[in-house]
TrEMBL record, chain A:
Listed Pfam families: AHSA1
Record field: transmembrane: none
Residue ranges occupied by any Activator of Hsp90 ATPase homologue 1/2-like C-terminal domain in the UniProt entry: 26-158
Stored CDD domains: SRPBCC_CalC_Aha1-like_9
Protein name as annotated: Polyketide cyclase
Recorded superkingdom: Bacteria
Matches recorded under SUPFAM superfamilies: Bet v1-like
Family to which this protein belongs: Belongs to the AHA1 family.
Gene3D superfamilies for the chain: 3.30.530.20
Species for this entry: Agromyces aureus
UniProt cross-references to InterPro entries, sorted A to Z: ASHA1/2-like_C (IPR013538), START-like_dom_sf (IPR023393)
TrEMBL record, chain B:
Classification via Pfam families: HTH_20
Record protein name field: ArsR family transcriptional regulator
Molecular function via GO: DNA-binding transcription factor activity
Annotated HTH arsR-type domain residues: 3-97
Listed Gene3D superfamilies: Winged helix-like DNA-binding domain superfamily/Winged helix DNA-binding domain
Annotated region (Disordered), positions in chain: 111-135
Amino acid sequence: MTTTTNPVTITAPEGLPFIDIVREFDAPVSAVFEAHRDPELVKRWLGPNGYDMQVERWDFVSQGGYRYVHVDPAGEAYGFNGTFHTVRENEFAIQTFEFEGFPDVVAIESMAFEDLGDGRTRLRIHSTYPSVESRDGMVASNMEQGLTEGYQRLDGLLG
Amino acid sequence: MILDPGADDRLDRAFMALADPVRRGIVARLSRGSATVNELAEPFQITKQAVSKHIQVLEAAGLVTRTRDAQRRPVHLAPAQLEALTAWIDRYRLIHEQRFRSLDALLATDRDDDPAAASAPTGPEAGRARKAQES
């Protein structure tokens, strides 16, 4: 296995409803874009470890949309949906993002796919939430999920 | 189920290593990228020697590794071990790390044109999780 990875930078400024995520990939921009466009590829990386991702709709085009469900190993389902407002091939996308367990709190995310040359790509994600509280709630709920997964892995270790 | 007699020892060492706020701070810093001892010592009001000792404890627990790079000896996070044991540290970041590493694996697969490695695990736990999903 690989022990070195490209670091991810996550900034969630205090008092502002934003999250910025920056990550580089050792792959050309067309491949990174395709991994976002093709639902069969998306399924292979978007879900948390051990979750089944069921894609009901995935039209990664301007004025397209999506809905998918993550099913955890215990059979619990978590739905997500949104629209793809703008999609420009190998360059840029804007989507909305709603966790159905937290209805009506919709984030707007822009994704910039930057060609770094030499077959490398930088992905910049900027998420805007309706309020600082909902932004923090999002981070907290992900943390909750991380905690659950952590305990599951711990169970495996203790097996 | 595979019984691993070393698992308990490793778990004890890792949790003991992380029972210290300076060492947790070092791990959180390293989750953003590798760093030298000097860089790691900056935010703390303690000597470089003390930071070096903390790094030794983390190294013994398998949570970090060190390499030689000319005059530098950067410290790196050992992400698989860390994720397996301490998902509660810096969790939001680790979720994204995991997602992007899955994307890395997928992109590497497409480049190698080897579909068998498409779901290449990023660690032993990933394989275990996938098995659970398939069964």
